[in-house]
Design brief:
The complex is a heterodimer of chains A (about 375) and B (about 180). Chain A is of the alpha+beta class. Chain A has 15 helices and eight strands. Classes of the chains: A alpha+beta (about 375), B alpha+beta (about 180). The interface between A and B is large, with 40 and 34 residues.
Chain lengths: ~375, ~180
């Protein structure tokens, strides 16, 4: 006589250490196998877009910090690029260089959190501490520049709030010198650790066509083997002056687009970011960083969609101006929001423990999903 | 690479009166205004036609045009009567490297637009967000629920320009 079987629904989160914030997953299980995942979001909704409509344009900047709180610099960067295109402002070259330096340092800091917590999620606790040690030095660089460690309000429309600290260049050079060996250490500890590879290689494969159809972007898209990076493919700021590569997933340990590929693309991206920062601090021009900041910001009537390559992918700002001092509409296309949709496709057929491995590899930030 | 004008002419030839107009007068980005009930067919054509290949939906955004008649209600707060809500689609071809903006408008009292979820799966949550914030109903959408607001939110659509806060939510006073 056949045994009666039944599907089970298991709730994971919102308070769960490996959901990286307040994400609730409703898992439909057949024993230990995932049949479907229904994500429930919105626990961190702070009405960012509604707030914007009551603010003047410069007042929006501190709110953008609070979306992707691991990459605040880049959120400001994206907003500033969008507003400058809307207002048709030319920004001094020094400002653009500093923005690129800050943006790339932020990318390293953000990836360090992603990689460290990914290790911690699936049982490797030591690399987590090493990653946070290195990230702390980047946060120190930000702190001497603008006084804040996480939420900066540093990149303004048309300029920056402060010029670089006199020690900044020296400390950054020291950081780069120390960080390269640390990166190798991270590879030895985690990336090529056989236990880590067993947990991540061949797991949660994201085929390229699915990724594009879902609008997945950033390291997750590149992990599936597509050379697509807005810094090169839809250039903004001064990124075209630097020499760097776009790393993609190659299926070195398993299939192209598996968790390990998405993980390792981030490791390689940190090396490329170091290259950009090195070139930028060697060639940074002199100038005044506040000269182009407009006194009164009142853009003409119109609409613009601008996007930048955030550490998590394509961060888009859709801004509609009605010719007044407040935006009529600010919509943020948050990369994690879009990536989260593909998550249930990735999990189908894997086990409950793999959900944690897959969730860590797509690297979401709930602050930006919920806005 | 095709310009918005070339794409507009191609669409006009294929779909006729469903393609309403090409707007280039406002500064910056031109957009094509299309019929709200034909969006899915137009988008499918845009995705699959060999020299268009818009394989990626960058962004989908609901907007309150606030172009209706503004009236004061008895408490002195402004409400909007009539006018339109709109949905903007930002498309991109990763292969041919061109971009396009579509816009479709629907009346405020009964906002309905056809879904594009079948064409770009990534549209699913964007459309749910537009429904959540503006109350735009996407016809044939597989799973049209609120997404960012609580599932039991019954006080309207927060990003509409005439939205009013409720006095109480689950026994808590709202403007506390």
């Amino acid at each position: 006589m056949a045994l009666k079987t039944e599907e089970m629904v298991l709730n994971m989160g919102p308070q769960h250490p490996s959901t990286h914030g307040v994400l609730r997953l409703e898992l439909q299980l057949d024993g230990e196998i995932i049949i479907d995942v229904v994500p429930h979001i919105g626990y961190l909704h702070r009405c960012f877009e509604k707030h914007c409509e009551a603010m003047t344009y410069p007042q929006v900047i501190p709110y953008t910090d609070r979306m992707d709180y691991l990459a605040s610099m880049y959120n400001e960067f994206g907003y500033a690029v969008a507003m400058e295109r809307l207002l048709k402002i030319e920004v001094p070259e020094r400002v653009e260089y500093i923005r690129v330096i800050m943006g790339e340092l932020q990318r390293i800091a953000s990836h360090l959190v992603a990689l460290g917590t990914y290790g911690a999620d699936i049982g490797a606790f030591t690399p987590f501490l090493f990653c946070f040690r290195d990230r702390e030095r980047i946060l120190h660089l930000f702190e001497i520049t603008c006084g804040a460690r996480l939420l900066y309000n540093y990149i303004w429309i048309g300029g920056l709030s402060h010029d670089l600290h006199p020690d900044f260049i020296r400390l950054t050079k020291e950081f780069i010198k120390d960080f390269r060996p640390n990166l190798k250490e991270l590879n030895d500890l985690l990336s090529f650790n056989q236990i880590f590879i067993e947990r991540t290689a061949n797991v949660g494969v994201l085929p390229l066509e699915t990724a594009i159809n879902y609008g997945v972007s950033g390291p997750n898209l590149r992990g599936s083997g597509f050379k697509w990076d807005l810094r090169k493919d839809d250039p903004y700021s001064v990124y075209n002056k630097f020499d760097y590569d776009i790393p993609i997933g190659t299926g070195e340990k398993g299939k192209v687009g598996d968790c390990w590929d998405r993980y390792f693309v981030r490791v390689k991206e940190m090396e490329e970011s170091l290259k950009i920062v090195e070139q930028a601090i060697d060639t940074i021009p002199d100038g005044d960083v506040t000269s182009a900041i407009p006194k009164r910001i009142k853009p003409p009537e119109g609409q613009i969609y601008t996007r930048v390559e955030n550490p998590r992918g394509e961060l888009g700002y859709f801004i509609i101006s009605d010719g007044s001092l407040n935006p009529a509409r600010v919509k943020v296309r948050a990369p994690s929001f879009v990536t989260m949709q593909v998550f249930s496709e990735l999990c189908k057929g894997w086990m409950v423990a793999d959900v944690v491995a897959i969730l860590g590899s797509v690297d979401i930030v709930l602050g930006e999903i919920d806005r | 690479m095709k310009t918005a004008e070339e794409i507009f002419n191609k669409l006009k030839e294929k779909f006729g009166s469903s393609i309403i107009e090409l707007k280039t007068d406002k500064p910056l980005e031109p957009f094509i205004l299309v019929n709200r009930l034909e969006v899915d067919k137009i988008c499918l054509f845009l995705r699959d036609e060999r020299d268009l290949l818009f394989d990626s939906l960058m962004n989908l955004s609901g907007v309150d045009d606030a172009n209706g008649e503004k009236i004061k209600d008895e408490t002195g707060l402004e409400t909007i009567n009539g006018g339109t809500l709109s949905v903007y689609y930002h498309l991109e071809s990763t292969n041919l490297r061109h971009k396009l903006t579509l816009k479709t408008s629907t009346e405020r009292e009964k906002p309905e637009v056809v879904t594009v979820t079948e064409i770009w799966k990534g549209a699913n949550w964007h459309e749910r967000e537009a429904y959540d914030m503006y109350g735009v109903v996407f016809l044939n959408h597989p799973d049209l629920r609120r997404i960012l607001m609580p599932y039991d939110w019954e006080f309207g659509y927060p990003l509409r320009k005439d939205y009013k806060n409720p006095e109480f939510y689950q026994g808590m006073k709202v403007p506390y």
